[in-house]
Structure to design on (396 residues):
DNA sequence: CAAATTCTGAACCGATCAGTCCAAAACGGA
DNA sequence: TCCGTTTTGGACTGATCGGTTCAGAATTTG
């Protein structure tokens, strides 16, 4: 062959993802991406074609890993359904508290992108819709299991409860970006579990 | 004096607000603002100083009117606390369904701005925090009243429930932007009321 | 070592960005 | 009517945007 890459593509993608996550799509310049990844413009355009393509891959990477770990928690049959939901919410609270920039939560790339781009870019919209469907399906499954086992008392249908859970999680993300601290997020999470268990 | 304005400042502000609401701050160009308001660049800069200042005034205008009507609903003592919350959620669902662009909900300027700018611009951050405090205070008041009257069964403290309610509302907004239809939003709202009443 | 191939850095591109400037137009007051 | 003041539209500015180009450095293969 010929001259080999001097960088790790996966690492570069991760750095780019983080930048989009912190600053949003429009506010991230190609210059920002160069600095974050440590690559030159040529290398970036050589490898990722365009800013939009790099964003799409970043978003894909984000949902794969994030939704992946969430689904894994939800499908872990070694603990009862309600407990799995508690673990999920803990995970989210921890994430919001840990992932900050300038002392502020950076939220969730999925939520941020839904707000910034959903409905404006067809590829982004499709990707977000697929991810939402995947998360809702996992939510529904645990909730149904919880209802069958008497773990979850609410008699609303599992789909409605899944949409409710999804909305609360999104709202927690926005709250964190709005300045909510750990105690606040935990209170929201606890109230949400009340709603399902009670 | 001299030559009078050819336009209505309040109307222009409203058009600008709507544009920022639909497209976000960064994605709205000064050209967009000219087209939306019908004003020339000179008139805009003459009247509103800068894009950022115009945005700040737009956000202020939004918050005043939106939070204003919400607080009015919450303080209407002619109906019981839980009923006021139901009315509030109905209002929000209606708003999300009605306010669309390209068949997609445009969400809530407060939520959108929290995601896009909170923590990045100090003036924006302060404005959003003031508005959040105002809404939380109104939420707390109705919830406390509901708890005293036995209308609201949850024994969590009113502040936690207020933060919870705020999060769900934000999440409904994001869900709407993500494509949720009226039935879905209503299901989330109903589940939320369950959580407070049950 | 030499040829073939790929990667890299920097200069460069047209478009668009927010914002400025200015001359002409449009009015009120005298 | 004419002066003073303000508004208005359009041309303009420097900076930055995403993206391209290209010469030369780096590396594998023969």
């Amino acid at each position: 062959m010929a001259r080999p890459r001097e960088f790790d593509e996966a690492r570069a993608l991760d750095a780019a993802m983080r930048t989009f996550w912190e600053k949003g799509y429009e506010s991230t310049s190609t210059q920002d991406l160069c600095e974050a990844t440590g690559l030159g413009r040529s290398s970036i355009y050589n490898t990722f074609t365009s800013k939009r393509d790099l964003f799409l891959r970043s978003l894909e990477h984000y949902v794969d890993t994030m939704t992946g770990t969430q689904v894994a928690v939800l499908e872990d049959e070694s603990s009862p359904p309600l407990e799995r939901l508690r673990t999920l919410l803990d995970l989210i609270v921890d994430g919001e508290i840990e992932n900050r920039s300038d002392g502020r939560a950076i939220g969730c790339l999925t939520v941020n992108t839904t707000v910034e781009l959903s409905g404006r870019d067809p590829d982004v919209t499709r990707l977000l819709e697929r991810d939402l469907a995947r998360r809702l399906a996992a939510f529904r499954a645990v909730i149904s299991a919880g209802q069958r086992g008497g773990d979850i008392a609410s008699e609303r249908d599992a789909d409605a409860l899944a949409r409710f859970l999804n909305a609360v999680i999104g709202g927690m993300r926005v709250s964190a970006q709005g300045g909510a601290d750990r105690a606040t997020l935990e209170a929201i999470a606890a109230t949400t579990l009340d709603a399902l268990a009670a």
Notes: DSSP finds nine helices and two strands in chain B. Chain B touches chain A through 48 residues (CB under 8 Å). The two ends of chain B are 65 Å apart (CA to CA). The first strand of chain B starts at residue 100 and ends at 101.
